[in-house]
Amino acid sequence: MTWKIKEDLKNIIKKEQGTRIFAKGSRKSVALVYPNEYHVGMSNLGIQVIYEKINAREDSMCERFFLPDKKMLQEHLRTNTPLLSMENQDPLYEFPIIAFAVSFEMDYFNILKILELGKVEPLATRRGEQDPLVVIGGPCATFNPEPLSDFVDVCIVGEGEEVINEFLDVYYKGQEQNLSKKEMLLNIAQIDGIYVPCFYEPVYSKKGVIDRYEIDSRAPNKIKRRKIDDLEKQEAKTVILTEDTEFRNMFLVEISRGCGRHCRFCIAGYCFLKPRVRSFSHIMRVIKEAKEKYDFDRVGLMGAAISDHPEIDEICDGILAEGLNISVASIRADSVSQNLLDGLSQSSHRSITLAPETGSIKLRKTINKQIEDEHLYDSIAKAVKSKINNFRLYIMIGLPNETDEDIEEIINLTQKLKAYMEKCGSKGRLSLSINAFVPKPFTPFQRIPMVSEEIIDSRLKKIKQGLKNLKGIEFIIQSQKESYIQAILARGDRRLGRVLLDSYDNISNFRKTIKKNGLDSNEYFYLYREREKDEIFPWFNLDMGVSKKYLETEYEKALKQQETPACREGCKACGVCG
């Protein structure tokens, strides 16, 4: 044990506003873990929501854990100090419940690092009656938790604001009844939106695909993802404000959830249909209450499609009228208003992010991204008028049916947009944020192969070569190694658990370890094969409400470059609305 680690945690706490610390033993403790470093985790709105929900109970206290930075990690290892909580500096292994918020596949490795640092046995089958119960929630737990099934006891599928209380109620009652862990998990499995992997055993065919799941007769056949029907009854906002985050001293508030645009690559759209919004009056009440409690000058608006909110102009005007600045992550080029851009400019924004995804109209129809070049030109003109002169474009390569001609379209569009920026009077920077397309579960592209690394490499080189003489262009390119690991994990099955266990302390060995474990000699199985229509996917036991038939229909429409309109009232096409 070292005092240096404790002092470091106490110093971080001193900089926070809104932290709740209860006396040891006064309530039942729950560990809430974000599997990354503090400055990343405290920028996540989901972890703040759950922190508040747990602490709002009269019987529970929530303490946070994060992956130590490199310097503090070395101190932990040097002194053999277990991972300690932020609030009371208690070791992770002492907490009866360890709940992870999992947003990104690359954090799977960190989950195992944290369990190791916390002196907690990683394999669920080896944890005894007195060991902690490990829970995961968040996007990754919702669309495919199977690669983590060897390590977790409980998966929260969908939105957690309501289910976290139901889970804790059942858990505490089971404690009072002195239930065994197996009996406790059976009771927990009856809660809507909770998946308990140990009751669902995959059986594999000779081809290596899942032949069936053997399901405990006492467990539900399908787990329906939880959804908050009325967002007005739930608040999603910053509860701990700190300067040590990616959003330095910014108050975050969610104004909408889900998206009804049906972009065929986007898991957020299909896993969180239908789209819901919070009203202008609700949002402003939350912000005004926060002003009385915290010291901040900027409000970050959170949601999948900020500029689609029907009252976005009123929200911007209301925030500015409170003497606060506005921040957004990205905006849709076909719904951005001059009023929103003026508000961002007044808030010292000097750049905006647009997401055409590709330069090709053909591919935009394939992925159902209903944005035209004119929308991009119009957004640039409005932004420059508002004195915003820098732009970032989100671009994907490796999309279905992509050809070299489509890559040329990215180059052409970039050249045209840069020229148009200058025509409008901007001498700013145009950044291309380029990522390899990763097929995800519960989307129309869930069955298709990943494009090979060689093709992605050649297309990246072609884009760079085509734009090398154009001044004011910046490239932001995601690690290809990470993209392909992400692709394996996103659609992976339970057998990847032993691969994660063998490689979590050296991620560069992950793909080699797949071969070592005899799963796939050339990664064809996980990356490069097209899944059969009737194949049982690892996420078979989960139900997002979107029918499989609808996803197949959308895939067929994608191949024909046919568009699907955005969600509208009374539509029953996808199955979510009955």
A few lines on this structure:
The protein is an alpha/beta fold. It is built from 21 helices and 19 strands.
Would you mind describing this structure in some detail?
With 578 residues, this protein is an alpha/beta fold. The chain contains 21 helices and 19 strands. The strands form 6 sheets. A 6-stranded mixed β-sheet has the order 2-1-3-4-5-6. Strands 15-16-17-18 form a 4-stranded parallel β-sheet. Helix 7 runs antiparallel to helix 8 (181-189), helix 11 (312-321) packs parallel to helix 12 and helix 18 crosses helix 19 (510-516). The chain starts with a helix and ends in a 19-residue tail after the last helix.
Keywords:
578 residues; alpha/beta; six-stranded mixed β-sheet; four-stranded parallel β-sheet; globular
